[in-house]
Amino acid sequence: MLLSTLLFIGGIYFGWRVAFPRTFDYFLGLAGPVSAGVKVTPTVMMDAYIDFAMKMLLGFGLVFELPLLLLFLSIAGIVNYLQLITYGRYFILASFVISAVLTPPDMISMFTMAIPMCALYGASIGLVYLFGKAPTEEQKQAFRDARKKKRAAA
Fold it and tell me: The whole model's pTM is what?
């Protein structure tokens, strides 16, 4: 429970200190001079600001729970570190899709969420290796065979 709370608060803190300022500056930077002598000044309504901040910070808090989720799945015997390594490239794609859904429609906030997700996935592989259930010999052999087949095809 404590680890889950720490990860969630860490995600909110990361979102507040890193992602939120960059994203908000980007949106405010969209307002600029329209033509000679005409300038657009953005007006931020408080309810829209709070709604935007809450959705973004909640998304970052949930994303930072990924290591704990994968560790529990490994302890339950659903995944192991070999499967996480095998499906790593699919997770990278999924992380960019998830970040595109959870963040505003700009590339800065999407990358600011997707890159830590990929780093957390890598940390999760290490946690699952150390604390999760070990793969069976059949799973290890299937992993080795798949790598040999992949190297031979390249």
Answer: 0.84
